[in-house]
Amino acid sequence: MNTFLLPNKGEYPAYYSTYMDLVPETPFCELVESQIEDLKSLFASKPENWSDHPYQSGKWSPKEVLGHVIDTERIMTFRALCFARGEKSALPGFDQDPYVLNARFGSVQSDLLIKDFEAQRKALMTLIQTLREDVLDFKGEANGNTITPRALFWIIPGHFIHHLNILKERY
């Protein structure tokens, strides 16, 4: 497996610093694995139906937050795969709100969403293990910004930490 170091600041748009600044200096696969357990523990510690209710009107429920995290991880993984394989076409951005609305995560059982999250994480880790070190630094364009596969992969656990903190603090 490659060394998979953290990206440098110039490898991703500045607005992703919100997530990158949350990432601890932990080996990537250890961090990603531990986050599966963090999520399971959080949901297990809450009362039944907790995941169905937003903390205030107009906000997502915990199930919708988790669904958003899963969707975002799939999109980031897809972008990273494209750029690692040498894709030269610009990839589009995505608007998270219609994704959550159209997914109807509220009607999905929490246990299934947790299994889906875990499956996405396992697929992410095996993908990374198949990549050569040099492709992690290839550059691509997504949502009008230049970014590397390395940065996209590391944004994933940072984005998760951001949302896990919100779930812990506000719900």
Automatic annotation (TrEMBL):
<feature type="domain" description="DinB-like">
    <location>
        <begin position="35"/>
        <end position="166"/>
    </location>
</feature>
<dbReference type="InterPro" id="IPR024775">
    <property type="entry name" value="DinB-like"/>
</dbReference>
<dbReference type="Pfam" id="PF12867">
    <property type="entry name" value="DinB_2"/>
</dbReference>
<protein>
    <submittedName>
        <fullName>DinB superfamily protein</fullName>
    </submittedName>
</protein>
<dbReference type="InterPro" id="IPR034660">
    <property type="entry name" value="DinB/YfiT-like"/>
</dbReference>
